[in-house]
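To whoever is on call:

I kicked off a structure prediction for a single chain this morning and the downstream step that reads the tokens threw a length-mismatch warning. I double-checked the sequence; it's 161 residues and nothing unusual in it as far as I can see. Pasting both halves so you can look.
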Amino acid sequence: MTQHLFLSLGGNLGNTREIFEGAYPHIEKKIGKIAVYSSIYQTEAWGPIPQADFLNQVLLVSTSLKPEACLTELLEIERQFGRERKERWGPRTLDLDILFYGDVIIAASDLSIPHPRIAERKFILTPLAEIAPLFEDPTSRKSMTALLAACADESQVNRSV
């Protein structure tokens, strides 16, 4: 059975646009067909570590993989693009996160779907609202537009040129 998978891409080390473009074929080969690409946004780094701005994007992917298999493949794609998990919220070449997997809810030690901090992060909600404004978070039953309007995050999120 095919599911709609929303993925976020982020990075602030190296040529992030090239890394994203390089990751797309890997995502399509390992996860599924990319149906929709959001714009790429430049965003202030989020979290306690001072660092360069990030580029962020959200993709809608059609997949037949189960969520756990998606996670395994995404971690491998990150590794192929030089991701090293040294410190939480630290700089990275490529960060791939599962945001939503249809209306599935999973709360496991190694996988939480929906991503637990979506409603707090404008850099995720802005591209989500761009490509799926009426999609509802299965936990809050609020649309991406409504979550973005209610988001307290005041960081700058600007469409990258």
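Update from on-call: the warning came from a stale cache, not from the record. Cleared it. Sanity check on the structure: The chain has a mean pLDDT of 92.
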